[in-house]
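so im writing up the methods section and need the Acetyl-CoA hydrolase/transferase family protein record in one place, dumping it here so i stop losing it
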Amino acid sequence: MKRAGQHVDAAALDLAKHVRPGDLVAWGQSGGEPCTLTETLVAQRRAIGGRFSVFLGTAWSDTLKPEHADAIDFIAYSGGGQNRALAHAGLLHIVPSHYSQFEHAIDVDVLLVQVAPADEHGHYSLSVAYEYLLPFLEHARTVIAEVNEAAPWTYGPYALTADSFDVLVHTNRPLLTSARAAPGETELTIARHAADFIEDGATLQFGLGALPEAILSALQDRRDLGVHTGLFNDGAADLATRGIVTNARKTVDRGVSVAGVVMGTGIAYRYAHRNPALQMRGTSYTHDIGVLSRIDRFVAINSALEVDLTGQVNAEAVNGRYLGAVGGGVDFLRGAARSRGGVPMIVLPARSRDASRIVSQLHGPASTPRADAGVIVTEFGAADLRGLTLAQRVRRMIEIAPSEFRASLEDDAHRHTLLKS
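--- predicted struct ---
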């Protein structure tokens, strides 16, 4: 779609000319947030003349606050990051959708994007966030771009030019980052168990946080690993820089890593900048089960808040508090299950303070059904549930629970007739 391509000084931007009452406004998550635009939107929210909604990914800025609910309704897929304050205030409206379905489930009116400055051919880049923004870019009524001099220029599927946007404002400000979490002994132990399922030539998908970072760090002796993931992080950048991630054996997109968003510190951003070895794609590609199933030895590594004795996974909420997301877990697990030599894996610490995260019954929704369970990994080992009966699963799950909870879990399993006396 050809748009106006009007360049406007950031200080003179009047968003009331573009956002209407009742509109849904969206932007990139984490480091992909165009902070000048979102700050302007909040400052000018009352001038719009009526309530409007915003769709949020994982927020790393504190731009949105509960008091902004005087004009804004907050819609999100995740309770993580700075969204937690909105959730605690009872203001976050959750869309419990698979990550791959956002482009079909969300109808965006105004899209705010952060882009890297145009290259020598006049092509702009969506920088660190492509994922679900690509379909929004095509279908939104209005698209406003923050051209950030500090944003990495990354390779994507579209040649974006000035007339891909209605309005462009120019800024130069550091991207939002997330501190690189240092793994503790629990994470390192889980990582060693998980690494046993990752062989040379495997292609990896992983999330953000200390546990995925620990798993990636445990792969220093592997060869020719590949990456096809929703999220590209510091650990993946480290492995690629060391020549461990080469993508040389990938059966799809050989020679390049594929990701939808870059999250992390300057390490990941610097690696991504003008690096053709990293190709950014939309969610309809990164999370497509048909694509994933064609990648041999595809290992999907996803996390959970808790897992029950039969393999049901809760990745969203515990005791009424929305902490996570449905996310792309099911998409990737199903893709790995279809992959030749693939491994669908859930990793989590076995305990949280004084409670077990291996439970007889979930304390929240079943984000992933037990039919999609594969390998569950805690610091006490790995339970490969593939092909096992319910009773066999229960036995294996109890073995990877904290020792002090195993007897009570077994009693619960008998009470719920999952085990016979």
